[in-house]
Amino acid sequence: MAPPAEVVEPAAPGPAADDAGEAEAGPSEADRAAAQAAADLAAVKQWAAERAAAERAAAEAAAEAAAAQAAAEDAELERARAEQAAADLAAVREWAAQRAAAEQAAEEQAAADRAAAEEQAATDRAAAEAARAEADRAAAEQAEAEQRAAEQVAADRAAAERAAQQEEQEQQEAAERAQRQLEQQEAAATAQRAAAQQAAERADVQRAQEEWAAGRHSAVRAPVGDEQRPERPRPTPRARGASAAPATGRRRAAEPPPDAGTAPRPAGRRRRTALVAALLALVLVVAAGVLVTLRLTDRSGSTVAADAEQVPDAVLPELSDPGPVLTALGTDAPLPDPTALAGVLSPLLAAPALGGGLSAQVVDVATGQVLFDRDAADPSTPASTAKLLTGLAVLTTLDPTDTLSTSVVAGSSPGQVVLVGGGDPTLSTTDPSTDYPGAATVADLAAQVTQALGGQPVTGVVVDNSLFTGPLTASGWGADDAPSSYAAPVTATAVDGARVAPGESQRSGSPGTDAGRALAAALGAPDVPVDLGQAPAGARTLGTVESAPVDRLVEEALNASDNLLAESLGRQVALARGLPASFDGAADAITAALTDAGLDTTGLDLHDASGLSQDDRVPAHLLVDVVRAAADGSADHADGLLSGLPVAGYDGTLAERVVAGGQAGPGSVRAKTGTLLGTNDLAGTVLTADGRLLAFAVMADGTVGSLTAGEGSLDVVADALAGCGCR
Question: Is 0.90 topped by the overall pTM?
Answer without folding.
Answer: no
